[in-house]
Amino acid sequence: MKLALVDYLILALYFIFVLGIGWRLKKSITTSGDFLLSGRSLPVWITSLAFIAANLGAQELVGMSASGAKYGIMTAHFYWIGAIPAILFMGLFMMPFYYGSKARSVPEYLKMRYDEKTRGYNAVTFAVMTIFSSGISMYALGLLLHLVLGWDFSTSVWCSAVIVLAYTFLGGLTSAIYNEVLQFLLIVAGFTPLAMLSVLKAGGWSGVTARFHQMVLPGGMPGDVMTHAWGYMGKPSDNPMGVELFGMVAGLGFVLSFGYWCTNFLVVQRAMAARSMSAARRTPLIGAFPKMFIPFIIIMPGIAAVALSKMGVGYDLPLMKDGSTDYNQVITTLMAKFYPAGMLGVGLTGLMASFMSGMAGNVTAFNTVWTYDIYQSYIRKNAPDSHYLTVGRVTTVVGILLSIGAAYVARRYNNIMDLLQLVFGFVNAPLFATFLMGMFWKRSTGRGAFSGLISGTVAATITWGTTVAEGKGGIFGVVHTFPSIMAQNFWIAIMAFSTCLLVTLVVSMTSQPKPEAELEGLVYGLTKIPHDPNAKWHEQPVTLAVLVAIVLIIINIWFA
Amino acid sequence: MDLRVPSGWFFSLLGVILLGMGLFAPENRAELTDVNVNLYSGAAMLVFGLFLLLMAWRATRPKA
Questions:
Q1: How many CA atoms are closer than 13 Å to the CA of A354, on its beta-carbon side?
Q2: Helical segments of chain B, H only
């Protein structure tokens, strides 16, 4: 792919705006709270879009369009089943405790609700994980830009890192959030035309459906599986993902997605920055509207690409050196075929933007957890606030340097990264059970929570070690064989969650609970959930949630 | 700072650039498209950018 002058101009224009926003916000930062928490002052439309954008990294864009080409419209479940219910739950039921507790971070909530060791465990694992995920996404982008445009890996990584550093260093969380909103709008602007052009070229959605209807996929499955989200989920062998209904709904839809959206500080932080309790609760709910429709601009082009490649119109699926399909390049090859100079610049800038929003999200979350939950708690307590502001600023630099390091590690040792992601999965899987017990059962104790977390991680490891999927795993022996790695992942999550829930329950019953006075604002039953009967309909969380649910059901029936 | 101001300017400028490309270099097409992509997407971005600026301007006007 070759870029024209106008494309570079658009890219440069974007960088100027991003840096300008950081520069303008510099003077509004006077305390560590301004820098790390946005002073809890942002309007709801901004926090909502940032809530979605922080999760919409470049890996997600590239990966989801690749999965669209591989698995078809079923991929949309990562949004419809895998995000929306969890987002609704978070806004309706969990935000009152997060925001009402006045905790500055998710680990800090765990400290208030349970004890120091639970917070320490969560803070340290989270800090390590954000650095690595930021590094991995940097690596992915460097690789992509090298493949598509021939840009040097190190140049792409360092240039984008320096820009993210500049605007987060200047304007802190507010700057990261403002830029995430701009990035989100740019992603939509850069990808929507591609979705429309590629689907229209393939004959519209009905044309795509008809084409797949006549096709047989390479594995022998009917082409219809690509255009039906629910119809082929009775047996794992019926669909390309190799997942059955229960594993999908319980594993992805319940454990994994609730674990991510309800407890991951990266996204929760955006809602916590809202200016009022009501705005904090509406942040995820309003964010759910655009989230539902993202599959149409990211996954649809992937599906259309497969249809187009069978039509002989001049589009072929990209291949790797060994001749197999390189799904990760689907989106960029489509851009090269459908976007003229100018629009191509917007599309690629959108891709860059998604990368930056993902990275800035990780860095700002890392900052807050490091400064408040690790530095202030274990290294230096009771310093003046200006000291923590400096620490926050320095941490931004250190965090970005560490992510760059992680990007190079990922490039050099691919296996280490795979292993790390696996381990993170084991650590994360039980987390939602801990929060669920903490928020809705006042009898649960710190000792119970901590034992639950550890045994959940152990259960995940055992499940992984005793099962086989796609010929891999089973290092402790083979008890069960899963039809796909995805099914295995879902079941690992289910086992970890159930174990954590059970152990937390049993250990809590045998240990001393916190007195109720200490739990006010932290637990259901001891917290006043605000309700304002005079609020307009679009200011009421329940009304918004019902609306989201109705739209979600309609979309699912449409694409069933 | 009202975020609608910088976003509005950004999309307006983007729209003007693409619209200009669409008007003055209409022969500039990608391999698989028959429509003038720059023209239409540029127009849409310009409208969106101006809309954001309008909203921001309305918010700063003293309420009557």
A1: 24
A2: 4-24, 37-60
Q: How far apart are CA A430 and CA A454, in angstroms?
A: 8
| Residues 8-37, chain B, touching A (beta carbon < 8 A) | 9-11, 13-14, 17-18, 21-22, 28-33, 35, 37
Q: What is the pLDDT of residues A269-297, one digit of tens each?
A: 999 999 988 999 999 999 999 999 999 99
CB pairs under 8 A between A and B: 89
The tokens for B59 are 């918010």
- In chain A, which residues touch B (CB < 8 A)? 6, 9-10, 13-14, 17, 20-21, 24-25, 28, 46, 178, 181-182, 185, 189, 193, 197, 201, 313-315, 336-344, 346
B21 and A340 in contact by Cβ < 8 A? yes
Whether the ipTM is more than 0.85: the answer is yes
The pLDDT tens digits for B20-64 are 999 998 888 888 888 899 999 999 999 999 999 999 999 888 765
Burial class (CB in 10 A: 0-12, 13-18, 19+), A277: middle
Q: Does domain A5-412+530-558 have CATH number 1.20.1730.10?
A: yes
Give yes or no for a contact between A424 and A89, defined as CB atoms under 8 angstroms apart: no
Structural domain spans, chain A: 5-412+530-558
